Amino acid sequence: METIQAVFGHLDPRDQNARHDFCEILFIAFAAMLCGAKSCSDIWRFGQEKEAMLRNVLTLAHGIPSHDTFSTLFRKLVPTAFAEAFAGFMRHVASASGGAG
Questions:
Q1: How far is CA 70 from CA 66, 89, 93, in A?
Q2: From CA 69, how far away is CA 62, in angstroms rounded?
Q3: Among residues 83, 43, 98, 96, which one has the least CA distance to residue 66?
Q4: Given a cut of 60, is residue 101 above it in pLDDT?
Q5: How far is residue 27 CA from its own chain's centroid?
Q6: What is the pTM of this model?
Q7: 31-52 tens-digit pLDDT
Q8: CA distance 13 to 17
Q9: pLDDT on residue 96
């Protein structure tokens, strides 16, 4: 299965010296939204509460990003490009799991 980096990595709108890993931010956001997060503050809170679990699959070299980091990133993302990448990713997931493509 394709990785988050392969699917979304090219969409990172931030400078190369950004502190937090782009794909780790997306992973935390995806997981938080699947668990009911509705805002960047909710995503941050989820990350804080689940940090130990998240460290099993993420490096989190600089810890959990702040709610401002999530907010800034989501404001800078190009919505149509992200939507296209996400739709392609979901088609791939559905196909790999035997669901509708």
A1: 7, 21, 25
A2: 12
A3: 43
A4: no
A5: 3
A6: 0.91
A7: 999 999 999 999 999 999 999 9
A8: 12
A9: 87
39 located within any domain: yes
pLDDT at 75 over 90: yes
Question: pLDDT class for 1, splitting at 50, 70, 90?
Answer: very low
Place of tokens 């493509």: 101
CA distance 24 to 35: 17
For the chain, the domain total comes to 1
Region of 63 please: left (phi>0), alpha (psi -120 to 50) or beta.
left
Within-domain flag for 67: yes
Length of the chain in terms of residues written: 101
Which domain covers residue 72, as residue numbers?
20-96
Q: Assess if residue 13 is contained within a domain.
A: no
**E strands, 2-87, in order:** none
Residue 45 lies in a domain: yes
